[in-house]
Design goal:
Radius of gyration of chain A: 20 Å
Largest sheet of chain A: 5 strands, mixed
Number of helices of chain A: 9
Strand content of chain A: 15-25%
Structural class of chain A: alpha/beta
Oligomer: homodimer
CATH class of the largest domain in chain A: Alpha Beta
CATH superfamily of the largest domain in chain A: ATPase, nucleotide binding domain
Largest interface: A-B, 41 and 41 residues
Chain lengths: ~325, ~325
């Protein structure tokens, strides 16, 4: 019998969401547990199983499932292990193996950005594409690179850390959580936009709607709202952010010559404010042969489903 | 019958070298013609064939050959065409098809840096590696990227133009032949070293052995010779060049997580003068998980054979 379903598991620092997904990318059921409630990963896996069965039983049994795909921060596709994920309770665990054993079906894991890329390729904006780069613009900048229809894992399984490529080698470049300075994600993530906003408000006297806000709580949404109201400083922040991002995209294109770069995550809600400078800067920095030929597009997956869909896509492989 | 040989063709702006290669990477015979003598590509292909037969006949016939691999500037693997190669007499030609027809065996083409990568993987320093990046440091910076044992061609066949990633976004960055500014190859090629030497001699008064030389003819070899004699300016030029190159390598590692980066070309003759700062800068710019784990090594193919070997490696596929 063809197995019509897969399970997709998105493990976040706060919630772990598990969904039943069919081949058309419909999420037929979902459940979730609080990641941080389980210091013992054995209890976590067992609880996940019990919760999963509650949504599986009404539609049939685990025999109808092809496998489980899980998107996990620092999840290693090759080893199946979670290794050194700062915001998870477990620092080093053979997660895929534990899940496979508990559920009795094969579990594959990868990091969240790779899962997002799989989701776009299987159900989303990259359907039919063999070469594209997925960029997630959230707290950081994540990336999943697809070449010849396959996620690039590299020699050790950790390929695709484009958020930590360096865009500023000066001494005073922004400090990144990783310990380095000048990483792309310190400028071109949602957090990067907040940093830029705080910087410009504190170091200039320019009039801006942002000046009235609590500086430590300015979000990219605030900057978007200001730009929509015509605020010149807010617009300039998006130009600045988008230019850095577009320059980096040009470098990425010189590497793998993708058909498209697909954007997902909080910062994409800024729409044309971020897209316009990205596309402009990318094309200005491309070799003539690629100019105006590489698409930059927003993900078309529903945000609430995307992570589970992406994880589930792994299980069809 | 197993076909024991392949033909490797290296088309350069000056010479076109054709060699007979066996599975162990021995060049059993070679011949060459002057590329620029043939404005008509039909005559070029016919002459190549006639020259080839002169070295093939003594050992047997074309039936003993598995195919032809050709490394060509701007050669497109997907289309088999030479497209817009500035230093060749033919601007747009269905080269692979013409060769296949003339020789009666299959011809595959790719650009010279990809051919070099194939050569390293088949016969050289990358034997047994599935994930590595080949960097050629000559007049420019060429690159061939191998992921999962295969050359990365990308959506259009032109992937791997790392020499044109941008290392300096300032207005006064060095102008590249491609029309852009700040391309890696304007700093980190043999030509880049010459430019740095000229720059430092003309803009400072520092004592250096380089000052006595004809400024427009300083080569990376001159800078090497000076460094070997203890010249501080020459050493600083290598530090400067190697640092830029190493910083770029770190970015490349964040992309594809290779096991090694393999260096080939004129600038590698500078040995530790270029290698030391490359390795230092790369490691300083890597995420901790890769620090001191990615090898940077010189090609171990004989320079006179490397191009033909690289091209020939394509024909075993």
């Amino acid at each position: 019998m063809e197995k019509p379903y897969v399970l997709g598991l998105d493990i976040g620092g706060t919630n772990s969401v598990l969904g039943i997904v069919d081949a058309r990318g419909q999420v037929l059921g979902r459940t979730s547990i609080k990641t941080q409630d389980y210091r013992d990963i054995n209890v976590y896996v067992k609880t996940l199983y019990e919760e999963a069965m509650k949504i599986i039983t009404p539609i049939g049994s685990l025999e109808m499932f092809r496998g489980i795909g899980a998107g996990v921060p620092n999840g290693n596709y090759y080893t199946g292990r979670i290794e050194g994920a700062m915001n998870l309770p477990w620092q080093n665990a053979p997660f895929a193996e534990m899940m496979s054993k508990q559920f009795g079906i094969h579990c594959t894991i990868t990091n969240d950005a790779n899962a997002a890329a799989m989701g776009e390729m299987t159900y989303g904006a990259a359907k039919g594409m063999k070469n594209f780069i997925m960029i997630t613009l959230g707290t950081g900048v994540g990336s999943g690179i697809v070449i010849d229809g396959k996620i690039v894992y590299g020699h050790d399984g950790f390929a695709g850390e484009l958020g930590h490529t360096c865009v500023n080698h000066n001494q005073d470049a922004r400090l990144c959580n990783c310990g380095k300075r000048g990483c792309l994600e310190t400028y071109a993530s949602a957090t990067g936009v907040s940093r830029s906003a705080k910087e410009i408000v504190t170091t200039t006297n320019e009039p801006t709607l942002l000046r009235g806000l609590d500086l430590d709580k300015i979000t990219s949404k605030d900057v978007f709202d200001a730009a929509e109201k015509g605020d010149e400083v807010a617009k300039r922040i998006f130009d600045y952010t988008g230019t850095i991002l577009g320059q980096s995209f040009a470098d990425f294109v010189h590497f793998s010559a993708p058909e498209a770069i697909i954007l997902f995550g909080g910062l994409t809600k800024s729409g044309h404010w971020i897209m316009d400078p990205v596309v402009k800067a990318m094309n200005e920095n491309l070799l003539p042969l690629w100019r105006n030929k590489v698409k930059v597009i927003f993900s078309d997956l529903k945000e609430s489903d995307a992570a589970v869909l992406g994880a589930s896509a792994l299980a069809w492989e």
